[in-house]
Design brief:
Pfam families: CBM_35, CBM_6. It contains no helices and 27 strands. With 293 residues, it is mainly beta.
């Protein structure tokens, strides 16, 4: 990204996923979120009747397990700049094979049950988002053993303001520059329209004037559909530079949208995002930007 630049181009190239004689990948929407990448590690929190373990798959190489006693808990001290309802990410593992619960309380308030779906196994971490009301400054967030099963904790972090998003501008794909693709209609698409048949090697959708308030790393949330029956991937480019490969798990079908997130670097000011076909195709609904702390 050039120094002092106020625009950024983002492209996604889609390798093939084959269903019969056709290859497909389907995108519904994108959300951009500015991140201050703060993580609160479980092993650095106040741990009661739990055990710190090591694993290469855990953040910082460590996590907390054995949260299995009635008084087991992990309490984090979290600092935020403003009073708001935040969306908090919890990185966890649940190898029980069934849903497990933990009781979450904030600043010693009333605890609420949080349900954690099973993961691929113990030490196999995934993300779960929950809403928490936080005060400016330090807050205590306690995760204690619940009534069902047990959970391993890696970290909490990525606090998104959900009650008063600082930026909520939506950019419709069908209003962008479209090449080698068509506009389709669907009742579950934003504005009831989206861009489909991005299936030529030169097909793309380019959306300009996407404003980022400050330069930084943003969370790119992609709403997508993948009815191919197997995982699809896109190769991302940012300002012509190669970005991460994005994997899209199978959804319930075409037009049945799910979400996937990746991080991208943007400049302050207007940015241009371009989604271009690789192998297969993608359908695009909109892009939305929200700032986080």
């Amino acid at each position: 990204m050039p120094t002092g630049s106020t625009s950024a181009d983002i492209g996604l190239d889609a390798p093939a996923v084959t269903t019969g004689s056709l290859t497909w990948a389907c995108i519904d929407d994108l959300t951009l979120t500015l991140i201050t990448p703060v993580k609160y590690e479980a092993e650095k929190a106040v741990v009661i009747n739990g055990t710190t373990q090591t694993s290469v798959s855990a953040s910082n190489g460590k996590y907390v397990s054995g949260i299995a006693n009635s008084d087991s808990s992990v309490t984090y001290r979290v600092n935020v700049p403003a009073s708001a309802t935040y969306t908090m990410n919890i990185r966890y593992a649940n190898g029980t094979g069934a849903n497990s619960t933990m009781n979450m309380s904030v600043n010693e308030g009333t605890a609420t049950a949080v349900t954690f779906a099973p993961t691929a196994g113990w030490g196999q971490f995934v993300d779960k988002s929950v809403s928490v009301v936080l005060n400016p400054g330090d807050n205590l967030i306690k995760l204690a053993k619940g009534s069902t099963g047990t959970v391993e904790l890696d970290y909490i972090g990525e606090f998104l303001v959900s009650s008063q998003a600082l930026i909520t501008t939506r950019y419709e794909a069908e209003n962008g520059t479209i090449s080698g693709a068509t506009v389709g209609t669907a009742s579950n698409a934003s504005n009831a329209r989206y861009v489909k048949t991005i299936d030529l090697s030169t097909s793309y959708v380019q959306i300009a004037n996407i404003n980022a308030p400050t330069a930084g790393t943003y969370k790119l949330t992609i709403g997508y559909a993948n009815g191919s029956g197997s995982t699809s991937t896109h190769t991302m480019t940012v300002n012509g530079a190669s970005g991460p490969t994005v994997s899209y798990p199978v959804t319930a079908g075409w037009g049945k949208f799910g979400l996937i997130t990746v991080n991208v670097a943007l400049n302050a000011g207007n940015n241009t995002i371009k989604l271009q076909k690789g192998t297969g195709f993608a359908e695009l609904d909109y892009i939305e930007v929200a700032q986080t702390f």
